[in-house]
Structures are given as C-alpha cells and as structure tokens.
Sequence to fold (170 residues):
Amino acid sequence: MRVLGVDPGLTRCGLGVVDSGPGGRLAMVAVGVATSPHTDDVAARLFALATAIDAWIATHEPDVVAVERVFSQHNVRTVMGTAQAGAVAILGAARAGIPVVLHTPSEVKAAVTGNGRADKAQVATMVTRLLRLTSAPRPADAADALALAICQQWRGPATARLAAAKAAAR
Fold:
C-alpha cells in the first residue's frame, strides 16, 4: 500500500509518501514541502498548494491520502490557514478518486513513538529509524507528513477492518 501523508499548512505543507512491503516493512518514496509566500493573498496561496498536491498525487499515485486533523489552537488565524490547507489536500484526493483519512496529532505521535504527547524531535527521530534514513527529514513539516503516512500504514488496515465489522453488524 502507498500512502501520501499531508501535514497541512499555508506557509509550509509537509508531503511524504511511504510504501509498505512484505512483512510490513516501510520505505520512504518521497518527502518534501509545498510552500506559499506569506505575502500572497490566501487564494493564490491555496492555489499554489493545490497545484503542488495535485502534482504529488499524479506522480506518486497513492492508494490513500492521510491528512492531519485540525485541532484547536489559541491562534485562530493559524487554525484557519491549517484547516484551509487541509481542505485543499482532501479536495485534491477526492478529485483523483483516492480515499482520505484524518488522523489527530496525538494519534500520529502515539503510532510512531508510542507516546501521544511526544515532541517534534522524538517524532523525527522515530521516523528516521522506522524508515531507515541517514538523517531526519527537514523541516519538521516533512517529518510530520511521513509520520502521518506511517500512522496510516499501521492503523489504517485495522481501522478498515473495524469499520467493516461494524457495518456487518448493522
């Protein structure tokens, strides 16, 4: 299975693609960050992110797109930009006919590090180890995108089985 992880943000949107192979072995396919200048208006910034995400989807052909679920922050402006960037990723996947899943930051941290309150350095360290990389992806948004993809690789199949069991029970 191939997963595109998206760590949404207007200024920096982390993008990471992870494949799972035999025995659940994970491999990084690609990692990067889509950017938009903070001086541009919001429409231009969202268009730039949409263009980048569409290109990643076309290039890497993921089976699923995992997007970080927006959580409440004190800074409403930051929350709005993050939510808008996340919506762009969701829409891009929907246009391509690819399923989308949302994971909370604590869910991703718990999946990757075993601790739902892990800091960014701990997440980056574990992503580096799990994907057998020589160095941690930079910036942190890139590591976070890979962590989202890893979380989906590990939790996605179980989530799908649980949903199927609940549907069958109805």
Notes: Residues 160-167 have pLDDT under 50 and may be disordered. Residues 2-169 form a domain with the Nucleotidyltransferase; domain 5 fold (CATH 3.30.420.10).
